[in-house]
Structures are given as C-alpha cells and as structure tokens.
Specification:
- The chain has about 325 residues and is α+β, with helices and mostly antiparallel strands.
- It has 3 domains: about 45 residues; about 110 residues; about 140 residues, Glucose Permease (Domain IIA) (Distorted Sandwich), CATH 2.70.70.
- It has 6 helices and 14 strands.
- The strands form 3 sheets. Strands 3, 6, 7, 8, 9, 10, 11, 12, 13 and 14 form a 10-stranded antiparallel β-sheet that branches. The protein has a two-stranded antiparallel sheet with strand order 1-2.
- Strand 13 and strand 14 form a beta hairpin.
- The N and C termini lie far apart (about 120 Å).
- The chain binds zinc ion.
- The site of zinc ion has 5 residues, from loops.
- Zinc ion binds next to loops.
Length: about 325
Amino acid sequence: MATVKYHFNKHTLSYEQIRLSIRQRVRRILMHLITGVGIGVVLFLIATYFFDSPYERQLKKENKLLIAQYKVLSKRMDENQKVLNDLQERDNHLYRAIFNADPIPESVRRQGYGGTNRYESLLDMPNSDLIISTTQKLDVMSKELYVQTNSYDEIVELIKTKEERMNCIPAIRPLSVKEMKGMSSGFGMRMHPLWGDMRMHTGIDLNANAGSAILATGNGAVEAVGWDGGYGYRVIIDHGFGYKTLYGHCKAILVRQGQKVKRGQKIATVGMTGDASGNHLHYEVRVKNKYDNPAKYFFMDLTPEEYDEMMYISENR
Ligand SMILES: [Zn+2]
C-alpha cells in the first residue's frame, strides 16, 4: 500500500502532496523488485545448502540402501566362496582320488585375472572400494566355478570308462597261489642282494620254481619283450589309463610285442636271467611313469587280511 507523502511549503505555509513523475515511479518499483528478487535468491541458496529437497532426501535414502545391499551381497559371496572351497576340496581329495585323476593344483584353481586396469572404470565411483572388491569376488568365483565344472565333466568321462578300466588296471598277483613261494624282497629302499649297497627296489620279488607260469595282471597290449640288462628277459605290458607292468628275470617269454593279453593269461615263465641270485619274478607297476608298490594292486584275489599281510611284507619292514 503506497503511502502518500507531503512536503511543507515555506512560502504558502502549507503542506503539499509530493507528486512523482511516471519515470520516478517506475524506477522505484524496479528497485523494489530487484531487492525482493535478490533477497529471495539469497534465502533460496541458504535453504538449499542447509536443507535437502524431497528429491535429494529420496536419493540419499536410496544410496544408503544400495550400499547396505552391496555389503550384504559381499558377505553372501564370501559364504558361497566357502561352499565352493569345500566342493574343490572334496573334488581333489575324494572324487578325483577315487578315479586316480591328479588333483587340480591350487595355482590353476585360484588363477586370478591378469592386468590391474580391469576395475579402473569403477575407481571414480563413490564407495569404489566396496564395489571393486565385490566385483572382484564375483569374477574369481566365476573362474573357479568354470574350473570345477570342467573337473566334474572329466570325472563323468572317467565313470563311463570305469568298467574297461577295472579290467585293465593290474589287480591280481602275477603268479598263481599254488606256485608262489613267498616274497623275497619288497618295494622301496633295500640292501641289494648282489651288490650289497642301499638301492631303490622298483618292484617286488616273488619266489617260485623255474618254469612256473607268469600271469598278466590286467588286460592290455604287450609293449616290449626281450633282454634288458639287469632285468634279464622281461615283458612290459601297457594297460592303458597310465598303467604299465614289468615282469623280469623270465626263463621263457610266451607273447610277442603288440599282442593283446587278458588278465590271468600266461605270458612267460619264472627264471633267473639278468641280475638274479635265484629263481624269482621281479614284478613292477608303473603309474604314469612312476614306480608304485605292486602289492597295492593285488586287491582282486586277496582277502582283506591277506592284503594287509602282503602290504606289510611288501614295504620292506
Ligand atoms: Zn627285484
């Protein structure tokens, strides 16, 4: 409401109303407007600095929820990783062991991702630590799951060939029970009967009369026959699946190279050719080109008690 202003006229001694020109009026109105807008802007700035708009409040609330959710996810991933570790452990030490497959080394299972720039795009985000560590966990887990899946596929293949495998791996004694006269030397370090020094004995020595039948201990193909230094006349059978057996000091060899043989088939006779101090069979089992204790493979024709006894004798105790 505009107030009417007066000024005192000394000449007429009376009050006269002050009349403003249009220009003055417009200027006055503009001045008021500018001041009003200015104060408004300042108040608005103060208000937005100290108080959130409803939209901002909503965003902040959402952000808080998202971070909490991320933390929960991260924790659940840790729990899943524990379950996965347990599966890996069982895979290596139980499932793969049953089928004689090598355990998958830690270095292959835990192979990380190369390059540090992988998560660079996440670095400039707020809470980047949490986001990167969670992403990383998921990546590692995906990779480990992939390795684990492949391992299970391999085991499935092994199961399919199990029957053939059971027929091929050496599983009986290489001499008939009637003809075997005991074991003169077990597997492992021993005093050599001819040379008198400590040496690794790569097989076991089974005593029998000259001419006793030597039997193939599993299905396979004859890899080599003939004279071989200290072994004398020997036969090597390749059983597949990484298994080979050797029969040494033979008197006569009854198979030829490349011939297919069945478990229990007579392949040679006992003798004392090569470095042998008496008639006996030197019998070796090689698994993936490593010597193993042959007595471990006599499980098919021994009772558990006989097996234990054989193992006891065969370990050179
Ligand atoms: Zn021997």
